[in-house]
Amino acid sequence: MKKRILSGCRATGSVHIGNLFGTLKNWVKLQSEYDCFYEIADLHALTTNYNNTVEMKSNIREMAIDWMVCGISIEESTIFIQSLVPEHSELYLLLSMIVPLPWLERNPTLKEQIRDLNLQDKVNYGLLGYPVLQAADILCYKASAVPVGEDQLPHLEITREIARKFNSIYKPIFPEPIPLLSKSPRIPGIDGRKMSKSLNNAILINELPQITKEKITQAFTDPLKIHKQDKGHPDGCIVFAYHGLVNAEGIEGMKVSCTQGKIGCVECKGRTTILLNDFLAPYREKRSKISTKSIDEILIEGSRKAKKVAKATFDEVREAMQLWEWQK
Ligand code: TRP
Ligand code: SF4
User: Which domains can be identified in the chain, with CATH numbers?
Assistant: First the structure.
């Protein structure tokens, strides 16, 4: 029996190269070794986007299609929609009883969100409970490991604390999941901030090559390099970071040319654009062959499979907590 892992992303739609290199490549690699459940977290998306749900369905479809384009195989892994498996929500409620408020209030990810989204005194109950819902996601599958980025470590720590507390109060039914950190560095957006669709600085897998070209043309580079002859500093340069993703062999040469003033930013951007578009071409080709109709069926099928596992765990939880049963 393979060990099980669970991971997920908030349902935000199309995948960008930051997701591809930071998360999806890691997920794809794990498929052969683990029994993988990959969740489209639409309920987590609601914690900040509750007042804008018109695009939710299309965001879910786009995300699922892009995951498959990036190499998630539905023969090996299960892709499912969080809200179609109500056991997540029910377990979330039960777990909320044993979570002390300070565990949630001190969460650094929440503090960051309050700052970035200007929420201050507008934090809703659901957002505060975000890590409890994430714990329910993971524990529903008794996942032994969770592939995540650095930024999710606080959430995973809360999951582990919740599992420990549950096990000691009721019955030891949950393994404590360990994080599987992806090694890839954080990929910046074209403006140098974290790459994110909502910041409008992302290069999408599924966009026209012309759009990718325009974005790279606008990307920030070393501000001290104005003329071709100026000696540049590639290490902080975004275009250089993109170049490294798609041209591992050529990267040292590019570095030398930049630092010695043998190449200018315009030419460097041009070369990077070509390489990146070439790299993305097969993904884009594959994308055009997946129909929306087939993706709906895939999501329903995956969610059914997920529900079976989650339901079995949830029944154990009810029993451990001595909740009433329909029949004996
Ligand atoms: N919080 C994660 C993110 O922002 C998404 C997520 C939801 C998740 N549920 C999860 C990740 C369970 C790992 C496991 O990316
Ligand atoms: Fe960046 Fe390339 Fe310009 Fe150097 S030449 S600063 S690597 S864009």
Answer: 4-186+292-320 (3.40.50.620), 207-287 (1.10.240.10)
